[in-house]
């Protein structure tokens, strides 16, 4: 059976590794495959060091957008070791549904539904790099009866604080922030401190829907003749 390598961004925040480990364990249960987490920054083991010992592995980028990591450096490293790279997680309904469920949990904890929502992504300056957040916000907007806008934690505008302030300036008082982020880190911590935010949802990586999506990405490469795994 081909090995599965999860290419995670990485974070200096300890909770990030624990969150990604829970995802890896869930994917291992779903696929029965050997699963290893590799990192693109901040943490070890690095992606090159992991793939060096696993030539021919299937690499699933744990990335919600098609920025530099997804389009340039992950494929470049994978080619060195004859590894296959699946699409990232951008634009999938499973991501939007996980985002919806995390948002609802945050709203319940805060005391009730929000009257406006800001979807906050990591942000990218690369053309098309923010499309994952834009698509997730569009999909989430179809599930909610309230206005949904977008914000970015870096490299693009508006920032989350500005987006929340705009919504409050338009008369909304319960403005929730839906974190379009995979794991805890400096961005998720920054979102928790956004002035005026009514509720902030948790990152997505250890949501069961994400595990099923990653398993389906792997299966499409490792077992192309098999019936696709339902992920929604």
Structure description:
It is a single chain. By secondary structure, the chain is α/β, with parallel strands linked by helices. Helix content is 42%, strand content 16%. The chain has 8 helices and 8 strands, in the order βαβαβαβαβαβαβαβα. It has helices spanning 14-31, 47-52, 68-80, 93-110, 131-141, 160-169, 186-192, 208-222; strands spanning 4-8, 35-39, 58-62, 84-85, 116-121, 148-152, 175-180, 199-200. Strand 5, helix 5 and strand 6 (148-152) form a beta-alpha-beta unit.
Global outline: elongated
- Going across the major beta sheet, what is the strand order? 2-1-3-4
Beta-strand residue percentage:
15-25%
Per DSSP E runs of 2 or more residues, the count of β-strands stands at 8
pLDDT average, as an integer? 94
Largest sheet: 4 strands, parallel
Order of helices and strands: EHEHEHEHEHEHEHEH
* Separate helix tally: 8
Structural class: alpha/beta
Quick overview of this protein structure:
By secondary structure, the chain is of the alpha/beta class.
What order do the helices and strands come in, and which of them pair?
Blueprint: E1 4-8, H1 14-31, E2 35-39, H2 47-52, E3 58-62, H3 68-80, E4 84-85, H4 93-110, E5 116-121, H5 131-141, E6 148-152, H6 160-169, E7 175-180, H7 186-192, E8 199-200, H8 208-222
Parallel strand pairs: 1-2, 1-3, 3-4, 5-6, 5-7, 7-8
Helix pairs in contact: 1-8, 4-5, 4-8
Keywords:
four-stranded parallel beta sheet; 232 residues; 8 helices; single chain; alpha/beta; elongated; 8 strands
């Amino acid at each position: 059976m081909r090995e599965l390598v999860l290419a995670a961004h990485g974070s200096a925040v300890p909770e990030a590794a624990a969150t990604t480990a829970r995802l890896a364990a869930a994917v291992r249960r779903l696929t029965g495959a050997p699963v290893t987490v590799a990192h693109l920054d901040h943490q070890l083991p690095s992606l090159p060091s992991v793939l060096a010992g696993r030539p021919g592995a299937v690499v699933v980028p744990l990335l919600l957008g098609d920025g530099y990591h997804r389009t340039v450096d992950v494929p470049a490293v994978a080619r060195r070791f004859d590894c296959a790279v699946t699409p990232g997680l951008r634009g999938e309904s499973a991501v939007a549904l996980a985002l919806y469920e995390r948002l609802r949990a945050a709203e319940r904890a805060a005391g009730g539904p929000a009257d406006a929502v800001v979807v906050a992504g990591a942000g990218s300056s690369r053309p098309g790099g923010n499309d994952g957040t834009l698509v997730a916000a569009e999909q989430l907007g179809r599930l909610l009866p309230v206005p949904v806008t977008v914000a970015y934690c870096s490299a693009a505008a508006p920032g989350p604080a500005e987006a929340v302030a705009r919504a409050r300036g338009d008369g909304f008082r319960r403005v929730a922030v839906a974190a379009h982020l995979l794991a805890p880190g400096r961005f998720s911590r920054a979102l928790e401190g956004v002035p005026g935010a009514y509720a902030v949802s948790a990152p997505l990586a250890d949501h069961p829907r994400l595990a099923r999506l990653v398993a389906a990405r792997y299966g499409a490469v490792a077992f192309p003749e098999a019936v696709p795994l339902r992920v929604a």
